[in-house]
Design brief:
The structure holds two protein chains of two kinds. Chain A is α/β, with parallel strands linked by helices. Chain A folds into two domains: 56 residues, no CATH class; 139 residues, 2-Layer Sandwich (Beta Polymerase, domain 2), CATH 3.30.460. Chain A has six helices and eight strands; from the N terminus they run H-H-H-H-E-H-E-E-E-E-H-E-E-E. In chain A, the strands form three sheets. Chain A has a four-stranded mixed beta sheet. Chain A has a two-stranded parallel ribbon with strand order 5-6. The radius of gyration of chain A is 24 Å and the shape is extended. By secondary structure, chain B is α+β, with helices and mostly antiparallel strands. Chain B has a single domain, classed as Cytochrome-c3 Hydrogenase, chain B (Orthogonal Bundle). Chain B is built from 15 helices and eight strands. In chain B, strands 1-2-3 form a three-stranded antiparallel beta sheet. Chain B is globular. Chain B starts with 7 loop residues before the first strand and ends with a helix. At the A-B interface, strand 2 and helix 6 of A face helix 8, strand 6, strand 7, strand 8 and helix 12 of B.
Chain lengths: 228, 373
């Protein structure tokens, strides 16, 4: 790379960091453009790392209240139900303990300031190391805000209170999550498999799932790895 | 004279039955002709979509999304690529955004035409079905002109689309719209205000707004209950904020708010709105631009997760994607609008006659491919 190009890229990166992508996208030469973009990505990453490490060092005593819904509502949950948070508040989700999830969920729906009347999505996640995590994406039609709740449990005791009677769609969502991951939703009135047959073995979306060899005498095809 | 005792009978509808729109089984408890309980049994079309996604790269997932909702494959492509792009913070060129909106709206018309036509067929009106399929065919021709496929397109890619618009696309589509708009009045004459059709659908299967929200019902089914909620308007993605269009809602014109007729008619009105969006998009689309310009060489989203929603013809399609930083998604969850719409059937079909159940089921416009995934 010539010195001219380096200088040009440095200028472009500066502009890109300020949010102006036009000059980079306008470059005709593909090689130069990709180089500039790579440099920009690197600079952004560095900035992110710096931003992430900076507050940890200072840890200011009085942070301004965040506008992020997960921060804001997470704090409200902590105030109302002390000790229910399982991890520190962050921008992407609220980590809860399973114990009083039903009470929290009831409150989330009935509290007028929150009014989460719609359960958008409910799913599970196999995090490995014996941990399963249920995730709930809640949305309020009236206030138009969204949060994500995560509840981690162990495989030996995958019990989470069911919220099927609060949001009725939870009925089918929880059945599917049970079907695929083997959670147990306490208090669910119709705790059956959803998509798979009732006598299927195992929980397919767990990462270590092994397909059963036969089902009622029918040979089950194995999952192929990659392109075979 | 004694009292006549009714005996409850358990009846199976499906899994192979023309009015179940796929392979759906309904376990129905009937007291004479009256339904006392109805339980949908699903999973006959389960193809392990989510497990497949954990074994292929991000772009290889796109053809699978086609096969989930095979009547609105473009809309599913759209939902998925929007989610991945949001996760990667990728910005696509303006021309690509326009092409995507045009395709998504054409697909909405095609999907709604099939829904409306088949709904008439469910109730016993054969002719409107033929009229609507005839016009849907023209839209499929336009898709074929664009990308070669008529039903399953794999057209939208992460960062772009597979083919640029062909020569004469804008003119062809304008011609189609000019032809198509007067047809809507014809459908209305044939089916919408037909006395028999209204008798079979008005006041039947009323879905109140709060029940609909609690069951996660979305899209036209929710709007028919009077809730003005459309992601294209309330949480605009892509470039939907650039267009002017109305969000039609049900008003109980023929009976009660949220009945089968409202659900039917909201779709008919939405077709008109899609035509409006198409006319604006076709007039504004940039002439120049490379649709492959923003295609990333490697699709490796940063570590993290995203829940992204788009408005398909059937409602809010959500993709929950979890990335571990590798080229293969660690988890893809599809929140399917037809799944939530079917879940409400047990609630609203109780107490109606057997023949009304077919009418209610048809009005929800479900696609089993998307429910079972």
């Amino acid at each position: 790379m010539s010195a001219d190009q380096e200088k040009l890229i440095a200028e472009l990166v500066e502009k890109g960091l300020a949010g102006d992508m036009e000059p980079i996208n306008a470059i005709e030469d593909r090689v130069l453009r990709s180089k500039a973009k790579a440099a920009l990505a690197k600079a952004k990453r560095a900035a992110k790392v710096a931003a992430a490490s900076a507050p940890a060092e200072e840890k200011p005593a009085e942070e301004p209240p965040s506008d992020n819904p997960n921060q804001k509502f997470g704090k409200m949950i902590e105030d109302k139900f002390p000790g229910s948070l399982d991890a520190d508040l962050n921008d992407t989700h609220i980590q809860l303990k399973p114990d009083n999830w039903f009470d929290i969920a009831t409150w989330l729906k009935s509290e007028p300031a929150l009014h989460f009347d719609s359960l958008q999505c409910q799913t599970g996640m196999d995090l490995g190391e014996n941990i399963l995590e249920a995730r709930y994406n809640l949305h309020s039609m009236t206030h138009d805000h969204m949060i994500e709740i995560r509840i981690a449990v162990t495989r030996d005791k995958p019990n989470i209170p069911s919220i099927e009677q609060i949001w009725r769609i939870g009925d089918w969502f929880e059945r599917e999550t049970y079907d695929m991951f083997g959670f147990h939703f306490d208090g669910h009135r119709d705790h059956r498999r959803m998509l798979l047959p009732e006598d299927w073995e195992g929980y397919p979306l767990r990462k270590d799932y092994e397909v059963q060899e036969t089902y009622h005498g029918i040979i089950v095809p194995k999952v192929k790895q990659g392109w075979e | 004279m004694g009292v006549i005792h009714g005996e409850e009978m358990v009846l199976n509808i499906g899994p192979q039955h023309p009015s179940t729109h796929g392979v759906l089984r309904l376990r129905v408890k009937t007291d004479g002709e009256i339904i006392s309980e109805i339980t949908p049994v699903i999973g006959y079309l389960h193809r392990c979509f989510e497990k497949h996604c954990e074994n292929v790269t991000y772009d290889q997932v796109i053809p699978y999304t086609d096969r989930c909702d095979y009547l609105a494959a473009m809309a599913n492509n759209f939902g998925y690529v929007v989610a991945v792009e949001e996760l990667m913070e990728l910005k696509v060129p303006e021309k690509v955004e326009y092409i995507r909106v045009i395709m998504a709206e054409l697909q909405r018309i095609a999907s709604h035409l099939l829904a409306l036509g088949v709904y008439g067929l469910d109730i016993g009106a054969f002719t409107p079905f033929l009229f609507m399929l005839r016009d849907r065919e023209r839209i499929l021709d336009i898709f074929e002109l664009t990308c070669g496929a008529r039903l399953l397109y794999n057209y939208m890619w992460v960062g772009g689309v597979s083919h640029d618009l062909p020569k004469g696309f804008v003119e062809t589509t304008f011609q189609f719209l000019d032809y198509f708009e007067p047809q809507i009045d014809e459908y209305n004459k044939l089916l919408t205000h037909n006395k028999i059709f209204v008798e079979r659908t008005a006041d039947i299967g009323v879905l109140p707004a709060d029940v609909a929200i609690s069951y996660g019902v979305s899209g036209p089914n929710l709007r028919a209950s009077g809730v003005k909620w459309d992601l294209r308007r309330n949480a605009p993605y892509s470039i939907y904020d650039k267009f002017e269009f109305d969000v039609p809602v049900g008003d109980g014109a023929k009976g009660t708010l949220g009945d089968c007729w409202d659900r039917y008619y909201v779709r008919m009105l939405e077709v008109k709105e899609s035509v409006k969006i198409l006319r604006q998009a076709l007039a504004q689309i940039p002439k120049e631009g490379d649709v492959h310009q923003a295609l990333p060489k490697k699709i490796r989203p940063p570590k993290g997760s995203i829940y992204s929603r788009t408005e398909t013809p059937r409602g809010d399609l959500g993709f929950y994607i979890e990335s571990d930083g590798s080229p293969i998604p660690s988890r893809v969850k599809m929140r399917s609008p037809a799944f939530t719409a079917l879940s409400v059937l047990g609630e609203i079909a109780e107490g109606w006659m057997m023949s009304d159940v077919i009418s209610i089921l048809g009005s929800l416009d479900i696609v089993l491919g998307e429910i079972d995934r």
